[in-house]
TrEMBL record:
Residues making up the signal peptide according to the UniProt record: 1-17
Function: Alpha-L-fucosidase is responsible for hydrolyzing the alpha-1,6-linked fucose joined to the reducing-end N-acetylglucosamine of the carbohydrate moieties of glycoproteins.
SMART domains: Alpha_L_fucos
Highest taxon above the source species: Eukaryota
The UniProt record lists the keyword Hydrolase: yes
Organism, scientific name: Dimorphilus gyrociliatus
Domain Glycoside hydrolase family 29 N-terminal: 13-351
Keyword check for DNA repair: no
Name this polypeptide is given: alpha-L-fucosidase
Swiss-Prot/TrEMBL GO biological process terms: fucose metabolic process; glycoside catabolic process
Molecular function GO terms recorded: alpha-L-fucosidase activity
Family of this protein: Belongs to the glycosyl hydrolase 29 family.
EC number: 3.2.1.51
Domain named Alpha-L-fucosidase C-terminal: residues: 362-453
Length: 457
């Protein structure tokens, strides 16, 4: 009996000692970001829904069509029967080739530390059997599967990746939302009966470590009751110790409030930021959802992706790489190729990505194709230089690096014995001499990382 009482008292003491957050931004913004998010650096974003069926224009197809855009209107007119509705697409959202285990292993091979899966986009279709979706969900129509649940389970069973969900606060044509909007957002029927119940349901059922909110921009965070939800998330939810949230919780919150900042799509400021941020970008530069009309010149090259990586983590951000699966549940070969290329590069250079932090310089002041990060390893701080273009004649200017008698240069992944030397640069900094390497000696095909040990701070 004494042991039981002791355990109860200990539990009470831990609860009492835990920081409690109030439902206001002043309090919520003081919550420390869980360290796993900053250390992990790399995430995979997945935009999948009914919009994957027409797979035309973008994931905003319904809005494009409904607003009278000629390209979307003519697409329907020329390819579908009269009186076709957007809801008619749902039955063809079949997901017959969806294999959550294969997806999970692909994302792990790509070097991801977390995944953000679109649970519901602005069309309102839920990729899980939500109790408040009125049959507009993946168990009731289309796939007849719990898409969110299958991926969450596969990731946790087969990988060490953190699972997260994207959730759109608003729905373009939901009658409850349209009525609240017509009332100047003085009523909150949509929030109370749809948006918030979905969020609580997602957290309690799937326990995501990321809540990536969107679709908030037409109303304030007070209308959405975002502070109340996030206070519960931080204080009492089953993921209160691990969960991170973004900044899209009301029309006044972007780049100001929340956990990490994403500010705008493909946010990439190029300079060091005061708060943790994320650069989310689609491999298809013109759409987040799958498009059948995309062309190869619209696809990010691996060189472009690695440039984004260097720019992002040097300035303190994370990189969230988006792919749009097909209606059948396939990640098309060009997307898979980019993820595997990225993963092969990460296997060589991950030491310069995971658990790094911004150095005192980000982009070299002379060389625009050189970016720096730092990391504490084996009790000392090393600097890593991302070399995006191989220097002419092997002479690499690092204008912001101070020479030191003990300064040592090496290249991640290089196992040969050819030396990497350096000399002081008269104008300041150093000039590194990269040895001539044969193709078989170069550790990767794109972007190389120099490890700089014993640097002068």
């Amino acid at each position: 009996m004494r042991a039981v009482i002791f355990l109860l008292l200990s539990s009470f003491a831990l609860t009492a000692a835990r920081q409690r957050y109030e439902a206001n931004w002043e309090s919520l913004d003081k919550r420390p970001l869980p360290t796993w998010f900053d250390k992990g650096k790399i995430g995979i974003f997945l935009h999948w829904g009914v919009f994957s069926v027409p797979s035309f224009a973008s994931e905003w197809f319904w809005n494009c069509w409904n607003s009278g855009n000629p390209s979307c209107v003519n697409f329907i007119k020329n390819n579908y029967r009269p009186n076709w509705t957007y809801a008619d697409f749902a039955r063809d959202f079949t997901a017959e080739f969806y294999n959550a285990t294969e997806w999970a292993k692909l994302f792990e091979d790509a070097g991801a530390s977390y995944v953000v899966f679109v649970s519901k986009h602005h069309e309102g279709f839920c990729n899980w059997p939500s109790n408040v979706s009125f049959n507009w969900n993946s168990m009731a129509v289309g796939p007849r599967k719990d898409l969110v649940g299958e991926l969450a389970n596969a990731i946790r069973k087969h990988t060490k990746i953190h699972f997260g969900v994207y959730h759109s606060m608003f729905e373009w044509y939901n009658p409850l939302y349209m009525r609240d909007k017509a009332n100047g957002f003085r009523t909150q029927d949509f929030v109370n009966r749809k948006a918030l119940p979905e969020l609580y349901e997602l957290v309690k059922t799937y326990k995501p470590d990321v809540i990536w909110s969107d679709g908030e921009w037409e109303a304030s965070s007070q209308y959405w009751k975002s502070p109340e939800f996030i206070a519960w998330l931080y204080n009492d939810s089953p993921v209160r110790d691990t969960v991170v949230v973004n900044d899209r919780w009301g029309n006044e919150t972007r780049c100001k409030h929340g956990g990490f900042l994403d500010c705008t799509d493909a946010y990439n400021p190029g300079t060091l930021q005061k708060r943790k941020w994320e650069n989310s970008f689609p491999i298809d530069s013109s759409s987040w959802g799958y498009r059948r009309t995309m062309t190869i010149d619209q696809i990010h090259s691996i060189e472009s992706m690695l440039t984004l990586l260097a720019r992002t983590i040097s300035c303190g951000g994370n990189l969230l790489i988006n792919v749009g699966p097909t209606k059948s549940g396939r990640i098309i070969p060009v997307f898979e190729e980019r993820l595997r290329q990225f993963g092969s590069w990460m296997k060589v250079n991950g030491e310069a990505v995971y658990e790094t932090f911004p150095w005192k310089h980000q982009n070299d002041s002379v060389n625009p194709d050189l970016w720096y990060v730092a990391r504490k390893l084996d009790g000392k701080t090393n600097v890593y230089a991302f070399v995006l273009k191989w220097p002419a004649e092997g002479q690499l200017i690092m204008a912001d690096l101070k020479g030191s008698p003990r300064l040592k240069l090496s290249m991640l992944g290089y196992t040969g014995k050819k030396p990497f030397t350096w000399k002081s640069r008269p104008q300041g900094g150093v000039i590194a001499a990269l040895p001539p390497l044969s193709p078989s000696e170069i550790p990767c095909n794109w972007a190389w990382v120099l490890k700089l040990e014993n640097t002068l701070e």
